Amino acid sequence: MHHAAQLNFTRTRRLIWVCAVAVCAASTALNVGCDTIGSDFRSMGDVLIPPTPQEAAQWAVDTTDAENMRRGVALLATSSFGGVDAYVKLYRFYVKDMRDPLVQAAAISALARFGRPEDAVLISERLASSFAHVRLSAAIGLQRLHNATVTEAMWRKLQDESEEQATRVELAIALGQYPQDDVFQALVASLDHSELSVNLAALDSLRMMTGNDLGISRARWLSWYSSASVERRFVAENVYLYPTYQRHMVFWDYVVFWDIPKWESPGIPTGLNDGGAHGTYESTTPPPVQPPTG
Fold this sequence. Notes:
Layout: H1 2-26, H2 34-48, H3 53-60, H4 66-77, H5 85-97, H6 101-114, H7 119-125, H8 132-141, H9 151-158, H10 165-174, H11 181-190, H12 196-210, H13 218-227, H14 251-255
Helix pairs in contact: 1-2, 3-4, 4-6, 5-6, 6-8, 8-10, 9-10, 9-11, 10-12, 11-12
């Protein structure tokens, strides 16, 4: 069985390469670069024959190649077994100690997907990273984990107008799950920031926690806050859902029939209303992995 599978694998790879050579030969008169075409076909082959779980696990701990580590972590995080304890420990290790920013950012995304509320503390510490991509990943990750102890770190970074606009937008969105006074004040202050995208993200979160829509006027929000009783400030029954990327399918999505996009649905942050319980895919046995020591 193994020999037959390996033979089919080899034949498929060979077929893809033969097609690439044929197209390359036909395109000579059109001055189309063969290197580019060969690269495209190899990419298509990687999609048609995706890496095995064992390969993904090996890449994730390949300390000789940061790109392999990033790819491995990303593959594990989107797999059906990416939330088992062995991998969650690996994500935590990389979030805390990884020096390569791209690997660390991938680990933050993975930990946000499969971690527990207490992992929000570790992720929030990455808001102080010197790498903008890591800070952005941390801000997005904090939308998926609920832990009130990290709100101060979040709103302080939100108020830092030297921070990247994209990071502050994601933090304003994440703070919508915390209907409390300090968060409210920080969001209202953000209505005066110079970037409209930050203003609108803060406004959406204010609507979420109060049930009111007073526009981007800071004065109107503060006036309402001072007149509302403490018991009535945050009584909105809106359910916070972390956002996910989605778009309408287009023609080319169906043309690439071997890789039709699948969109993740928005969800409730881990720990928001379930006491911190978070299931993993323990029923699937993953390849063994140990965090690297080097």
